[in-house]
Amino acid sequence: MGFILFIVLVAVLMTGVPIAVSMGLAVLAALNFTDNPTPSLIMIQRMFTAVDNFPFMAIPFFILAGDLMQIGGISSRLINFLKMILGRVPARLAVIDCVGSGFFGAISGSNPATVAAIGGIMVPEMKKVGYSADRAGAIAASAGCLGVIIPPSISMVTYSLVAAVSIGDMFVGGIVPGILLCLTLVLVSVITCSKYEKRETERIPFSLIVRAFVDAIAALMMPLIILGGIYGQFCTPTEAASLACVYAFVISCLVYRELPVRDLPKIFIKSSISTAIVLLTVAMAAPFSWLMTSAGIPPKIMSTVLELFENKQVIFLMMNVTLLFLGCFLETQSIILLMTPILLPIARQFGLDPIALGLIIVINTSIGMITPPMAVNLYVAANVSGASVEDISKRILPYLGSMVLVLLIFTYFPDILMYLPNLVRGR
Predict the structure, then answer these.
(1) Positive/negative CA dihedral, 93, 95, 100, 101
(2) Distance of CA 90 to the CA centre of its chain
(3) Does residue 383 contact residue 120 with C-beta atoms inside 8 Å?
(4) CA–CA distance, 161 with 11 (Å, rounded to integer)
(5) What is the C-alpha to C-alpha distance for residues 54 and 212, in angstroms, rounded to an integer?
(6) 3-state helix, strand, coil in the chain (%, to 5)
(7) Alpha-carbon torsion angle 11, 17, 19, 23, nearest 10
(8) Using CA atoms, how far apart are residues 18 and 128, in angstroms rounded to an integer?
(9) CB–CB of 57/241 below 8 Å?
(10) Cβ neighbours around 305 below 10 Å, total
(11) Would you call the peptide bond into 373 cis, given omega within 30 degrees of 0 as the criterion?
């Protein structure tokens, strides 16, 4: 059964069929083409059971909140505020793109949305001062990787439900790696891009900084409301997600007044499609994971890995290499749903906390969004900058290399990832 499951999955994926449909076809084949066929109805039951889960309601709400904030004038106010406080640093525009993507990621929880919203503003400005289109696109694409790493994050919600860990712990755990990766991208930008900009010497009046802060404070408050609500035990993650939707609507429509009511149906349709894609993948992954477990595949993989590699450091390295490789071909949710049941027993065997494993998986899949051919960030950045995906891919190598280096540091020193979750837990 396990052999048929994976052979059919790989064969169908190679024909270009979406991952959700591929998993469904693999499950049907494994259920029916064995010595003891199993009724296909069990597949429907497993699919329904998987999505009939209250915490999954957080996914459509976070998606809708991100879509509302993306169009509602949030990004322009964030950029204006960052220009005030970062106006005199080297490689000013590149640094603002990186830091702005970190802030917007804490609002949208989406990599492509971050590239489109922040890159759409910053790339034209970078091109005006002398950045080439491909370099500006590479900065926007790599900074967009912060979208799913800095909470709230849809990928973290998915992992939390699959691995049965706290969504709140995952959100808190994402703060430190998100900030450190943002600082890494800033450092690379300063080293590689300072020659393209003349450093500003004029001091910005404090009154302008205060005005920009007041204008952007509504957007800056959203992550604090979500995390504060969860850890203050005022609401569950699902309720926090719905609160984020209401907050995003009020800010975009009533405070900033940049989101016309007539555009709401289009946003609802866009969010519904995004939600359907994610939840269909989740639903199809449920019978797939059940068959893997029934066939004893995760324990067999763990025993094989332990036989081949006795060194924990080598196993962790192979785990990252595998995730980065899959990131070239599969999208984030698929990798999380496929690999979590396999990697979780291995991580526990070697004393790696499930929260740390989840953060490592999320970071790997986020980096995968700038590694062709399945590089969504690159395609969005190419559309924003006007450069080709091939040219952006060459320019992005310093950013990619630095992010992989930081990822390895997190892997071999997981206490960095667990500092805030342990602090919140009172350890």
Answers:
(1) positive
(2) 28
(3) no
(4) 28
(5) 39
(6) 80, 0, 20
(7) -50
(8) 39
(9) yes
(10) 19
(11) yes
209 exposed, middle or buried (CB, 10 Å; 0-12, 13-18, 19+)? middle
- Reading the block at residue 169, the tokens are 């712990």
CA nearest neighbour of 394 among 384, 407, 382, 380? 382
- The packing angle between helices 41-51 and 19-32, to 10°, is 140
CA gap 366, 19 in Å, rounded: 17
pLDDT, one tens digit per residue, over 181-213 is 999 999 999 999 888 777 766 788 888 889 988
Q: What is 249-294 written as a DSSP string?
A: HIIIIIIS--S-GGGHHHHHHHHHHHHHHHHHHHHHHHHHHHHHHH
Alpha carbon distance 136, 386 (integer Å): 10
Question: Could you give the angle at which helices 19-32 and 264-294 cross, rounded to 10 degrees?
Answer: 30
CA–CA distance, 171 with 420 (Å, rounded to integer): 10
Segments in the chain below pLDDT 70: 1, 200-201, 427
What is the pTM (predicted TM-score) of this model?
0.84
Please list, in sequence order, all residues whose beta carbon lies within 8 angstroms of the beta carbon of residue 225, skipping any fewer than 6 positions away. Answer: 240, 243, 244, 247
Amino acid identity for residue 215 in this structure? D
What are the pLDDT digits (tens) for 71-100? 777 778 888 888 888 878 888 899 999 999
The answer to whether the CB of 177 falls within 8 A of the CB of 151 is no
Amino acid making up residue 401? G
Question: At residue 316, what is the residue type?
Answer: F
Distance CA 253, CA 259 (A): 5
Tell me: cis bond preceding 237? Omega within 30 of 0 counts: no
Angle, vertex CA 186, rays to CA 184 and CA 191, nearest 5: 95
Residue type at 85 in one-letter notation: I
